[in-house]
Design goal:
- This protein is an all-alpha fold.
- The protein has 12 helices and no strands.
- The protein has helices spanning 30-36, 38-60, 69-82, 84-116, 118-131, 140-147, 151-175, 179-187, 192-230, 239-248, 252-280, 282-285.
Length: 289
């Protein structure tokens, strides 16, 4: 039996006519480029705020009450060059990272207990409703009685400020995992730690990151306030003590320099740590816009 081969279609190339009737796209004007660039918009906002600060200081005409932006910038540059501000910032950040890390570990332990049984869930919800509304700085007098004048007192209030918002957000994120994902994980035979790490954590990651961000903000505010209080009885301290000391000596420009340092460190962590983690995880996976 002879098999007839199918005919081979001849190849050819069709030349397309040039597209007419459409003008080349013009480059965007600078207002449009500004509207499409997040860093430029933020920089413009900072410039406007600095200009408003400078104008308000000139209208007030009292350097003791409100120094100008230029005076605060000079004080900031002088203390950065002398090494005083970096040294104070390092003291604060060292304490903050210690308390923050301990708070994260304890929060995840509470959350793991809460998702494992009803008693743990009742314990977490009860403790959260009790201690989450309690300002961490209110515990500093007790911490001074229990732990004395030292780092342990500050770390204690930092752990309190991180623990409850992070545990609450993490537990809420685990509670919000869709049942279809839970069933898919169980169908694949995932149990225990593998089920938590491969199913619950990725799905609840936006809530976990939100809790980490909130805990960081609470801890940073609590540390500066605690150092202001702590500085009255101890010559050692970080940025809070720097602000407190310069306020006593009526160096208002240096007080503003300390406040600007606190703001800059907070913004740096928000952008280079939390935003970067979100870009690499939840936004990249399409979990969050």
């Amino acid at each position: 039996m002879n098999v007839v081969a199918p005919p081979i279609r001849a190849e050819y190339e069709r030349v397309l006519e040039p597209l007419a009737g459409f003008a080349p796209q013009r480059p965007l004007a600078w207002p449009q480029r500004l509207a499409n660039s997040g860093p430029l918009r933020k920089a413009l906002i900072l410039i406007v705020l600095a200009a408003l600060w400078e104008g308000a200081a000139r209208i007030a005409g009292n350097d003791l009450l409100l120094p100008s932006f230029a005076q605060a910038a000079r004080a900031f540059a002088t203390d950065v060059a002398s090494g005083e501000l970096p040294a104070k910032a390092w003291v604060s950040l060292t304490l903050l990272l210690q308390g923050y890390a301990i708070g994260i570990v304890v929060a995840f332990l509470f959350t793991a207990l809460a998702i494992s049984n009803r008693v743990g869930r009742d314990l977490l919800t009860t403790l959260t409703s009790m201690f989450n509304p309690l300002p961490a700085i209110a515990l500093l007098p007790l911490a001074l009685l229990w732990f004395g004048l030292g780092k342990a007192s500050l770390i204690f209030v930092l752990v309190h400020s991180v623990l409850w918002p992070l545990a609450l957000n993490t537990f809420s994120g685990f509670q919000g995992v869709p049942e279809t994902l839970r069933m898919a994980g169980r169908n694949y035979g995932l149990r225990g730690l593998r089920y938590t790490l491969l199913i619950l954590v990725p799905s609840a990651l936006p809530a976990i990151l939100s809790g980490l961000r909130i805990g960081w903000a609470f801890a940073w505010r609590t540390l500066i306030a605690a150092e202001l209080f702590f500085g009255a009885s101890s010559g050692n301290g970080g940025l809070g003590w720097y602000i407190f000391q310069n306020r006593n000596e009526l160096y208002t420009d240096r007080v503003f320099a300390g406040l600007v340092t606190v703001i800059l460190i907070g913004m740096a962590f928000e952008h280079f740590v939390f935003d970067a983690v979100e870009r690499m995880t939840t936004r990249r996976w399409g979990v969050q816009r």
